[in-house]
Write a structure and sequence with these properties.
The chain is α+β, with helices and mostly antiparallel strands. It is built from eight helices and 20 strands. The mean pLDDT is 96. The protein binds uridine-diphosphate-2(N-acetylglucosaminyl) butyric acid. The site of uridine-diphosphate-2(N-acetylglucosaminyl) butyric acid has 19 residues, from strand 13 and helix 7.
Length: 333
C-alpha cells in the first residue's frame, strides 16, 4: 500500500528529516508487479535500500520505493563453491554474517558495510580489496512494465562503485534478487592496508576473526550512523591520468596512490581533503570526520543543504589546490 507524506528520518543514515510525498515498501516480486499493474508506480520515483548512500537536500515530491524482499537460499553447490540467491531487502551485513557462520569465503572483507543486498548490486560496494562484483553471478530485476530480466554479471558492466543499474535505462528497473557465489575453499584477501596487521592480533586465522578484524578497522575509522549521521565515503577516490599524476607527484612527493591499468592512477580523496586542512573541519552541525575525512557527518541537526554547502567548499578547496574534481559517491537528492 502506498503511504503519503512519510518522514524519511529513519530511512537515511545521514539523519536528515525530509518528507517523501509517497512511499511504498514491497515484500515480494508479486506485490511490486501488482502495484505496477495498478498504475501506482509513477515518475518521479526513487529507490532506496538502507538509505546509507543518500543525501536529501529537500523534501522528495515523488514516490520512494523500498524493497523488503527477504530470504537467503542455497540454489546450487559443488565441492568448491556455493551459490546463494538473496532477496534485495536483506541487510547486507546479515548476509555477510550468514556466509561467515556457514564457513563460506569471499564476503568477509565486506563486513559491516551499511545498506542492503539490492543496493550492493547497483552500487558495487567495496572495501579492503573486495567488491560485490567479485561475488555476484546474477542480478534479477523487474522493469516498469512488470517484466522480469535476469542479468549475468558480465551484462551488469561493473566498475568502481558503478553498474548499468545506475544509468538510464536500467536505473528504472527494480532489483529483486541477487545471486552470489561464495567459496568453500579456505582463502583470505589480507593485502589491503592494515588488514593483515589487524588479523595478526588474533590467535587463529579464520573467517570469524577476519570478519571481526574488518569490523574493528571500520569502527575505529568510520562513525556509527546511530551516533553521528553519515553516508560512508562522500566522494569517490578520483582517477587521474599518469601525466597529471607525474606533475602532482613532483610537487607533492608524499602523495599516496594506486596504479591502475591504462596509465591511470587512483588518489585517495581522504588525503587530498586532509592536505587542504579540512580534516575535522565543521560548519555548524555539518562536519568532516576527524578520523576519515572522506566521510561527511551530521553532528546533530544539520540540514541536507548544509552538508551540501560543506561538500561544495571541500570540492572547491581540492580543485583550487590540486586541480582535481571530486565526484560525490553518495546520491544527492
Ligand atoms: N588517508 C589520509 N588521511 C586520512 C585517512 C586516509 O590521507 O585521514 C589516505 C591514506 O593514504 C590511506 C588512504 O587515504 O591509505 C585510503 O584510506 P582508507 O583505507 O580509509 O580508504 P579510502 O580510500 O578512504 C575506500 C572506500 C571505502 C572503503 C575503504 C576500505 C571509496 C570511495 N571508499 O576509502 O568505502 O571502506 O576504501 O577499502 O572507495 C564507502 O564507499 O562508503 C566506503 C566507506
Amino acid at each position: 500500500m502506498i503511504q503519503k507524506n512519510i518522514s524519511l528520518l529513519k530511512y537515511n543514515t545521514f539523519g536528515i528529516d525530509a518528507i517523501s510525498a509517497r512511499f511504498f515498501e514491497y515484500k515480494s516480486e508479486k506485490e511490486l508487479q501488482d502495484a505496477l499493474k495498478a498504475g501506482e508506480i509513477t515518475k518521479p520515483f526513487l529507490q532506496i535500500g538502507g538509505g546509507s548512500n543518500l543525501l536529501f537536500t529537500r523534501d522528495y515530491p515523488g514516490l520512494i520505493l523500498h524493497s523488503q524482499i527477504d530470504g537467503v537460499e542455497v540454489i546450487d553447490e559443488n565441492a568448491e563453491s556455493v551459490w546463494l540467491r538473496v532477496g534485495a531487502g536483506v541487510v547486507w551485513d546479515r548476509f555477510v554474517a550468514y556466509c561467515v557462520d556457514h564457513e563460506w569465503y569471499g564476503a568477509e572483507n565486506l563486513s559491516y558495510i551499511p545498506g542492503e543486498v539490492g543496493a550492493s548490486a547497483v552500487q558495487n560496494i567495496g572495501a579492503y580489496g573486495v567488491e560485490a562484483k567479485d561475488l555476484i553471478t546474477k542480478v534479477e530485476t523487474i522493469n516498469l512494465s512488470g517484466d522480469k530480466t535476469i542479468y549475468d554479471v558480465k551484462e551488469c558492466h561493473y566498475g568502481y562503485r558503478d553498474s548499468i543499474f545506475k544509468h538510464a535505462p536500467h536505473c528504472e528497473e527494480f532489483v529483486t534478487y541477487v545471486t552470489f557465489r561464495l567459496s568453500k575453499i579456505h582463502k583470505f584477501n589480507l593485502n589491503y592496508g592494515s588488514v593483515q596487521e589487524e588479523t595478526d592480533k588474533y590467535p587463529e586465522l579464520n573467517l570469524k576473526n577476519v570478519r571481526q578484524a574488518i569490523i574493528n578497522i571500520r569502527q575505529t575509522k568510520l562513525p556509527e550512523p546511530e551516533i553521528l549521521g553519515n553516508a560512508g565515503s562522500f566522494y569517490k577516490n578520483p582517477v587521474i591520468s599518469g601525466k597529471m599524476f607525474g606533475a602532482l607527484q613532483a610537487e607533492y612527493p608524499a602523495i599516496p596512490f594506486y596504479q591502475l591499468p591504462d596509465d591511470k592512477v587512483k588518489i585517495p580523496a581522504a588525503w587530498l581533503i586532509e592536505q587542504c586542512g579540512l580534516k575535522g573541519f565543521s560548519d555548524g552541525d555539518a562536519g568532516v570526520h576527524d578520523k576519515q575525512p572522506l566521510v561527511l557527518i551530521n553532528k546533530g541537526k544539520a540540514k541536507g543543504c548544509e552538508i551540501l554547502a560543506l561538500s561544495d567548499k571541500i570540492r572547491k578547496a581540492v580543485k583550487d589546490k590540486f586541480g582535481i574534481d571530486l565526484m560525490p559517491e553518495v546520491t544527492i537528492i
